[in-house]
Design a protein that fits this description.
With about 200 residues, the chain is α+β, with helices and mostly antiparallel strands. Helix content is about 35%, strand content about 25%. Strands 1-2-3-7 form a four-stranded antiparallel sheet. Strands 4-6-5 form a three-stranded antiparallel sheet. The two termini are about 30 Å apart.
Length: about 200
Amino acid sequence: PFADLRVIGSFRELYLLCAADDTLLVIDQHAAHERVNYERLQAAVGDEAIPTVTVEPPASVSVSPAAASLAEAHADLIDSLGFAVEPFGGGTLRVSAVPAPLGRVADVDALRATLGALAAEESPDDPRDGLLAELACQPSLKAGEQLSTDEAEQLLARLGECEHPFGCPHGRPTVCSIDETTLAAGFDRETTRFN
């Protein structure tokens, strides 16, 4: 249905305003773009190993002792996420590679976020999803980025192709709808048009 929406404007260079019959849809362009990027990353990576990029020279990342032991305990999982990590003494980890699905290179600090997610969730269903969600967020549209009508329509068409178009990978909604009845009530009008 998103491809059939009529873009009628934008608000604060973050929300797309769209007409759909008797309903006004407000699309969060960042959340929508993030959903599109996330599903594209998921499709590209699938069950394959996540491509990596070598960090030259290797980076030292300071973490808590608990996070360092978590990295050791989950070394295979960390490796499957695209990080090449080894203990470097105390609460320091040596990072020689980071994930780069579709060429989107993760920051070395993404390792801290990954370890934090592992600590918060003993056995996540698919820890790669959290990483892909973070990688999808980085290149997504930000507040203040104005889209042309054509670009907005392309984004909506891509969102409509998504398996889960109504929320970003972090769980925020992509769309809010305001039906004509709600608008009419706000203006103390009947719902019949042109009254």
